[in-house]
Amino acid sequence: MAKMDSNELLEEMGGMDVEALTHSICRHHLSNLGRDYGRSDLFSLYQALAYTLRDRLVRNWVKTQRSYYNQNAKSVYYLSLEFLAGKSLSSNALCLGVEKAAEEALAKFGVTMEEAESAEADAGLGNGGLGRLASCFLDSMATLGIPGYGYGIRYEYGIFKQAIENGEQVELPDDWLHFGNPWEFCRRGFMFTVHLYGREEKYTHDDGSEKHRWTDTAKVMAMPVDMLIPGYKNGNVINMRLWEAQPARRFNLDLFNSGDYIRSMEDAVRSETISKVLYPSDRLTEGRELRLVQQYFFVSATIQDMMRRFKKLKLDFSELPNRAVVQLNETHPAIAIPELMRILIDEHMLNWDESWRICRRTFAYTNHTVMPEALETWPLDMMSKVLPRHVSIIFEINRRFMEEVKSRFPGDEDRLKRMSIIEDCEHPQVRMAWLAVLGSFTVNGVSALHGELIKKNIFQDFVEMFPGRFTSVTNGITPRRWLKQCNPGLSDLITEKIGPEWVTDLSKLKKLEPLADDAEFQNSWYNCKLQEKKRLVEYARKEYGIYLPTDWLYDVQVKRIHEYKRQVLNILHAITLYCRLKNDPNSVAVARLKIFGGKAAPGYFLAKRIIRLINSVGAVVNSDPTVNHKLRIAFLPNYRVSQAERIIPATDLSEQISLAGTEASGTGNMKFALNGALTVGTLDGANIEIMEEAGRENMFIFGMDAEEVERRKYNGYNPSEIASADKELAEALHYIGDGTFSEGDRELFQPILDSLFANGDQYMVLADYRAYVDVQDEVDKRWLDRKSWLRSSILNTAGSGKFSSDRAILDYANSIWGVRPMGKE
């Protein structure tokens, strides 16, 4: 009888029509918010609608979870330190299929969906491409019916909120939870104890064998907080389980009663710090140690949660790999490998060989790094302090592996040093990527080029040792958020012409190809783009007080600020156009708006100085009437998912100009192409595959490829020779150094010039400058041929089918995870 009542209640929560949604909004005003719905405001309406949609999500989530157990499903545990989900209101309404009903229900209260969503904060759970990819993957897992969970940390504060003051980045707290989060469920009944510090101890087991235990530890509690992720109109809902750190002892009454009020709360403050901030600054040792603690904290809680589910099945531990697969999104969760070993050996008394076999069949590792110097390592002394038992396990993994290497390659001492998990140097380091490779059954890159580069440049020794372990799965993006939701005009036009199936099968966009030369369709396409530009103009005016021209070429580079992404190359082009226009106001044919956005890491001095340069050049250009009729520059602060949803649909030209061989994949390049932007880019990351799908003639490819970069570095690279031989480049560099863009201060941008000359131009900005400027001249010519531009724009969208995260997740499911889409019972 109780089960029947439960099912009836679930059905009662599920009304999807306007009347049911309106009734639920009113009910939540009263019961959840304690407010009279007759006196609602914008924020309370957002909250009430969010709770209304959450009711429907949780109904479907319960049914989905039941189906996992009823069908004995093998589940995916997707571990990521970042999930960049953005806002959830419109996305969840879309996936539930109630976006129009929700709009009508809100209209009864005098509010639009766009207004309601403006009250929602972007979830501060990620920083860049790693987190955006993870969120796309969860969307696709839910849409495809892949049984699984996302696991991460519920950060109280995001990395930071970026403001621009006097052209410089200023970091403010990203207090995204200030007003609460109506989408989450706190699961206090499923808390786990996470141990830290302490010491390793040997003891004799009852059977006479020598065993190890971790003792005298500090303890912190991990509380799961679930955010529900719906599939697209399929009734399937999975969850992202985020861990919040809480103290094992919240309050010391003895200290309080003795008058030491501050120390009475020390344990609570210390514990809660763990999930306080995304990526605490690692400039200080304490910050770096906190990062390590964060990584272990979420990994430990996740593995305990996985084992909790597995033990319900009452199976032998050897069956674990048949019921669970753990995907490590980068090396941040790699400590999960020795953690599972510890649990199996120390807590469940399995022997080493059996435990290692289980681990090696359970973990898979995605690498996102091309550059060897960017691979994560931890100081051995720090890890020994924080995780002494795990270091002991890592040493034993490494000892056994070194014996294996010696057997395969006798006498090769250099190989042993290169392949050891423990880097033998003055201050020994633990190589987390090496640990991830050894403990995983598959290692994958995230684009075709990246997959080859990591085999050649980073893991060459391991490829020789384990040739079948390495593969690649090209990244993807969800078409639901990144076209259907963020670009409704273009989405409706596409659906009108080819039907709605593309939303869950992006390969259907190929049907647009015959329409690329249709004049009427081109005109409709142009009007959709113009409408999105108008929306961006209004957004920039309201949000930042920035006034943008409407029908110009929108040339956009929005991404993390980093030398390898080469924002400096883009601004050098802007200065070149400035110089041309100063010499002859009619020398530039196309009116171009350069839009920049992105955050620099707080401790990354040069990246922050690049932001200052962009804004300083913009201030001069935008105020000069001899230039600003053809060139303007805008830096939109605090780049985030909701801002990207406004910028990307309005973009004409997508800047993907990293040095070839440095960008693993990119997903921004895919979002822009999906929305009809043409790419100006190098042969790097997924740009190559976009070119193969859309056609080189529909992009602007320039510069060296990865092999040419390596040859040029090997043969000696002299940036001064290049600068002196190119008059326009020399002029642009001169203006950076002579104070033109710094109110006469010749020292302000000297660090940028030093990076190009004194420090050898590591990312070869000057080497690619001339090819970049020349291809931008080709951009102008194509833009002036409107029919040709629109044709290429349509074909970029038509060629984007490969870059769906649905395709990527099916690749993972079929070739790595060994799981299949499932229905619900």
Automatic annotation (TrEMBL):
One Pfam family named in its UniProt record: Phosphorylase
InterPro entries xref list: Glycg_phsphrylas, Glyco_trans_35, Pyridoxal_P_attach_site
This enzyme's EC code(s): 2.4.1.1
Matches recorded under SUPFAM superfamilies: UDP-Glycosyltransferase/glycogen phosphorylase
Names of required cofactors: pyridoxal 5'-phosphate
GO cellular component, one term: cytoplasm
Signal peptide bounds: none
N6-(pyridoxal phosphate)lysine, modified sites: 671
Domain of life: Bacteria
Catalytic activities: [(1->4)-alpha-D-glucosyl](n) + phosphate = [(1->4)-alpha-D-glucosyl](n-1) + alpha-D-glucose 1-phosphate
UniProt-listed GO biological process terms: glycogen catabolic process
Gene3D superfamilies from the UniProt entry: Glycogen Phosphorylase B
Keyword terms, alphabetized: Carbohydrate metabolism, Glycogen metabolism, Glycosyltransferase, Pyridoxal phosphate, Transferase
Any one Gene Ontology molecular-function term assigned to this protein's record: pyridoxal phosphate binding
Family membership noted in the UniProt record: Belongs to the glycogen phosphorylase family.
Function: Phosphorylase is an important allosteric enzyme in carbohydrate metabolism. Enzymes from different sources differ in their regulatory mechanisms and in their natural substrates. However, all known phosphorylases share catalytic and structural properties.
UniProt name for this protein: Alpha-1,4 glucan phosphorylase
The species this protein was found in: Maridesulfovibrio hydrothermalis AM13 = DSM 14728
